[in-house]
Request: fold
Amino acid sequence: MISKEIAKTLEDKLRRDTSSLKELGITPTLAILSLADEESSAGLESYLKSIRRKAKSIGIEVIHNSSSSSRELLETLDKLSSSENVNGILILKPLPDELIREIPHRIPPLKDIECISLENMGLLFSGHPRFTPPTPEGVMKLLRGWDIPLEGKRVVVIGRSLNVGRPLALMLLSENATVTIAHSRTIDLTALSREADILVSAVGKPEFIREEHIKEGAIVIDLGVNSVNGRLVGDVHLESVIEVASLVTPVKGGVGPLTTLSLLENVLKATKIQLQIKS
Ligand code: NAP
Reply:
């Protein structure tokens, strides 16, 4: 199955789930918070647009609230946290450091559809997640959809961010892969990457991964989203890597659509948990 088909199957399922909730008089609602100063970035605008489009097609209501300061954003977060009409909360990045530190303590775990609260991160760490973070979940859905067995596979994840690299490594570990996390201080990244049956790049540097990083026949998942002269470019230099790898995800239509759908899947999950509805 190509990633488009995997996404279509999931989207159809989410639409059916929303219809069942609507029959009970429930409209799942996602609240998106952001800081007004940061909204002009092209990546953020297109992410917001794709969430709105998919949510509409699935039947999820979206409220967007833009704040002019960190204090205002936290006040809005507190208000939405206690609102019965909001089921999931997404706080768009970039954010200042003080918010990055505060939000994991403040967001209510049952509405935390990005899995950034300390409680939900702890559950993920323990191997019994309530929610899984959308981008790593998108990768797992892609690998499952491609029928790629993970047990015993050597996986190298480049990037150790809290929203992508680290949780993805944990999720791969839960599927019995042997996982190594690489980062900017890793020594001899080329040699390490060449050991990978599956190489995931979440670095954010255009065309950083090249032929010399890839083992013959490896699967390469490119999570990088970089803008170069207005052109969208991944972390992977596609032309050279494609000669050696057996599969490479494209920057457009790769994991991205599955990330958005996984986020919306969490909104439905959150709604059901809050209203104690069995799946
Ligand atoms: P991030 O927080 O900036 O993390 C980047 C990671 O790359 C860090 O761990 C950093 O290491 C590592 N790194 C930087 N330079 C390196 C080098 N030379 N060698 C090895 N590792 C290096 O970014 P992020 O939020 O994880 O996002 C990563 C990329 O994925 C971005 O392009 C972002 O736009 C994209 N993204 C895509 C999706 C999607 O659905 N496709 C979703 C979210 C993000 P240190 O920790 O040592 O600094």
User: Anything to note?
Assistant: The chain has two domains: 3-111, 134-256.
